[in-house]
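#lab-general

N.A. 3:47 PM
ok so I finally got the sequence cleaned up, no stray characters, all 269 residues accounted for. can someone with queue access submit it? mine expired

B.Y. 3:52 PM
send it over

N.A. 3:53 PM
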Amino acid sequence: MRIWKTETGELEKTIAVADAQFHPRTREIAISPDEKFLLMVKKHKSNSSEHRLLASEVEDSIRPKYELKPQPKIDDSHIEFSPDGKYFSLDVGKNLQIYETETGKLKVELADVELPSWGWLDNETLASVDYKQKNFFEQGQMLKVFDANDGKLLFRQRLEYAEAEVNRSLSFDDSTETEVYDSTVLKPHPSRKIFMTSSNQFVRIYDSRTGALLQTVVHPLIRVDLQGKQHMTHGNTVESAGGSKDGKTLYVFSANHTSVSLWQLIEDH
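B.Y. 4:20 PM
back already:
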């Protein structure tokens, strides 16, 4: 594995990652947000419990600073750093382990927690999603947010999704499968104090520590029946949503592809 300087293209260092027992390729290489540490997983060729994690300082020698062999095994070689880069999370099967990046010291182990594919919400919390598995399609149903210091569950948040029956059979038995066609996307704010969720109908903002709904930015149209009761229509309202890098502006593209709305973030709201 070779590391290059982005500005000049100069070769910084070469690290040997393969030998008779380990694969010559790794699924993913992760660099800490401050660009000081490089982490990678060496996959053992015959025994998954022998998978190793190597941590190197980018500007130091070619030898790893430390090596970890988490137990029972490294189940997924994907690595998630906290926003400040001081910690990283690693999947070890049914549990999730959090380590100090500088030393490789185990900070905490979270029981029955999936690798946070949506990342850390802030430096103190990380998100996990309970998945619904059906046939070859899976989609998150419940967002769970944990305290990264002690593994305590802070809150649960239901994720909206929609399913449809689709015919994927090549035979004549008219069999169908259920496929998710709309799911909720989570995007943490740069301040990490809040996060946004968006589906094809809603855009909402929540508090990262409590899960409290702070604002519904976009929702389906509301109609009033003859009795004066309000009902939300089920037509799509959102094509996509996101925010500027500085976190001061939120944008929403409409589902009909004809407009975009811009929202200004007001501090402490």
